[in-house]
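Journal club prep, notes for RB
We'll compare a predicted complex against what the paper describes. Inputs for the zinc ion case:
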Amino acid sequence: MNSTHENRAESSLVLGLETSCDETAAAVVVRGRDGQGRILSNVVRSQWERHRPYGGVVPEIAARAHVECLDLLTAEAMREAGVDFSDLDAVAATAGPGLIGGLIVGLVTAKAIALAHRLPFIAVHHLEAHALTVGLTEELRPPYLLLLVSGGHTQLLIVRGVGHYERLGTTIDDALGEAFDKTAKLLGLGFPGGPAVEQAARTGNDARFKLPRPMVGRAEPHFSFAGLKTAVRRTAEMQAPLKDQDIADIAAAFENAVAASVSDRCARAMDLTIERFGQDATRHLVVAGGVAANERLRTILSDLASSRGFAFHVPPVSLCGDNAAMVAWAGAERLALGQTDPLSAPVRPRWPLDAEAPPAIGAGVKA
Ligand code: KG4
Ligand code: ZN
């Protein structure tokens, strides 16, 4: 973020746009003088139907779909909020990380609105938007420990403040959402995979198949899901042709293995947080990102948190997946600190949240 003026403690009204992947979204939020947030509108249009025939997100189709509907969704968000562009204090859009075509659509649109209405513009980091969502929903302020689990990222971070993130762990191969999506594909459950696997697992017996629990016991709180995916494939091949009960049992075993692995990694990160901040550390575990919608994960992490004296926080399901309220909120938080961006700010398809973090040993390009 480029320009930093003195702190603004006024209330602010911010329009946010989100186009980094396969959801087109626009929202208006207000941030009060006291730092309290309120969503005035939050419009999301998913493109799943367009990508479904291909079994995953096709970047070119995503970018075109954003172009087709972003103007309409923005108008809808403004109308629902009952505000005019002249009422706004800033416009924010996701600048990265994400798919370059979609990012350009959102950023150019936000810049055009900012230019036409002489408004400050804020280029938002998508993961920062996920990371700060609990400030909007629960008024939780940093520092806190964050598990960020989405389709593209799986990280454990200490959120020290707006713009200050310390990465403790990351995935060395697949992201957790990606592992859910691939497992769904292997089991013939379709796309998007996370909710489909969760649904199938509800009627499954998680003890029938034994799957590996990746990285459990390792000192650094990194993740790995590629081996688990291979184990799912082998199990599915051995049972083929799969009956509904086989699919449910494999899905349940997968969710069980994921929950055990993620819980162990979070426990390790909690130890590290206490080491960093001492016994008096404020103890909060926050989970964010699309996979945070998973009920089993919420339950196991909530239990883990309470067994260790950590408060547990997770946004409502509607704000776990990609949305623009979180982008508008991150913009409002930046604006309150006097941090805005020039209209020359570029899209950043690859943009680490903690640029100082060393690469995880064995990590592929996605870390
Ligand atoms: O945060 P998000 O909406 O988009 C990214 O920034 O990636 O996360 C999308 C991911 C997808 O991989 C999707 O399958 C997963 O979140 N997901 C879930 C659930 N709902 C969405 N994974 C597990 N259980 C769910 N209920
Ligand atoms: Zn996301």
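Talking point for the session: The chain has ten helices and twelve strands.
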